[in-house]
Amino acid sequence: MILQVALDLTDIEQAISIAEKAARGGAHWLEVGTPLIKKEGMRAVELLKRRFPDRKIVADLKTMDTGALEVEMAARHGADVVSILGVADDKTILDAVEVARRYGIRVMVDLIGVKDKVKRAKELEKMGVHYILVHTGIDEQVQGKSPLEDLEKVVKAVSVPVAVAGGLNLKTIPRVIELGATIIIVGGAITKAENPEEVTRSIIDLFWGEYMMTIRKAMTDITDHINGVAEKLKLEQVRGFVDAMIGANKIFIYGAGRSGLVGKAFAMRLMHLDFNVYVVGETITPAFEQGDLLIAISGSGETKSIVDAAQIARAQGGKVVAITSYANSTLGKLADVVVEIPGRTKSDVPTDYIARQMLTKYKWIAPMGTLFEDSTMIFLDGIIALLMATFQKTEKDMKRKHATLE
């Protein structure tokens, strides 16, 4: 969760003073409120960004027309996020999103005044907006309205982060957290407080209960999954993998992205065990020849560079071990040995692997390929333990080959 402090003031010096206290209290984003922008112009945005370069600055323009022009103005003056009204014409919003993309900033669309908030939120998500704000204005609050009435529905309707604003304070924020808001916008409860820093810190403390739950849940998801992978390891696959390593002249390891980092860690340990090992892509990697082994790591088994390397290895008369979640993938079909390491369990998501990775629609908290990569890392550490026992190598033996130039 992100705490955004709305500086809905008209005096720039007072706004900066309160912003300093809120920043000390741990506020993540500072909002140059609409009244402040109307009074001081884009100068207010620029001053806040200069004073707080380590905080995201939100320009609450509430743009209704000329989205491209106003987003560009805000971006040039240092805004990181610009607000557009959800009741604006679609073209205004699309133009704003396009200009924001060019400047590397974000667009937050405010649903204040929108009658069917869920319907509009879905439309806005398709337009590519970065954040959607469920906002109950001050005049609506006077009438007894609350953003909580619509927040839960909007959060469930879209995948983009949802912000919430409208009279929030220490009493109401726990419920907002429970309903799934990502960005919590607080104005008067901080700006009108006797001690803005203390109130801000108290709100951040509320966040940390949720933060710790998220961390623990992710760790539990990952460890539970790895335990399941360990139980499902197939003897013939692991045996084929180890036999291929022991019989190889040279071992080449190849993975892309995070899988590549896992591969490099495994290569380092093999070097410590006196294996003749190389990482594909390094400048000192020699030619792949007959009798060599390629260990290819790819969760999908469809990463083009990995598949291409496997085809070359086979053509050169070497062997290929594929570590993948999909034995029937292109890589799996090319390999002499496949070690299956399951990735995440999906829940009503596209069947295409790449689409699932990009959409990240899983029941797991662990992001993207994390479960495959973490499971592969632990599995390969298990292989190292086996090789240490097989070749009677101790940690002391391995330390003799550990890097001394670091």
TrEMBL record:
Domain SIS span(s) in chain numbering: 241-393
GO biological process, one term: carbohydrate derivative metabolic process
Family: Belongs to the HPS/KGPDC family. HPS subfamily. Belongs to the SIS family. PHI subfamily.
Main enzyme class: lyase
Keywords: Carbohydrate metabolism, Lyase
Name of the protein in question: 3-hexulose-6-phosphate synthase
Reaction catalysed by this enzyme: D-ribulose 5-phosphate + formaldehyde = D-arabino-hex-3-ulose 6-phosphate
Enzyme Commission (EC) number: 4.1.2.43
